[in-house]
Prior knowledge:
mainly alpha
Amino acid sequence: MTKADVSRDRATRWMRWIARIWSLPIIVAALLVVIGYGWDWATAGAADPYAVQEIAPVEFLSPVLLFLGILGLGIAWRWEGLGGTIALVFQLAALAALLIQTPIAADFPRSAIPYLLLIVAAVPGVLFLLCWRRSR
Length: 136
């Protein structure tokens, strides 16, 4: 094994652990949100018992796509290529849904939060894909 291969392997290992450490709080936060909504739905009969008006079904599209992307991050812990691809595909779909539903220019500081969440959740997906590609 040459010196370049050893340093490349070390860099891949570092990227893999950075992606795992970065994705762990994202996965835990998403699971807490899903468990909380599930608990409210099981006990109160509605996901949000304090909702004042009905929510349009299209409003659920981007959070569901974001959650599926975060599920891809969990899969990437075992299968980097598959999980990273799932994460990026669903997060790009969530980005498209957000751009159609709520343009970023409308009420800028408040509307930028979902876009920032997408960026924060997309970085580990990219790192997992890079690790998968470098290890092949």
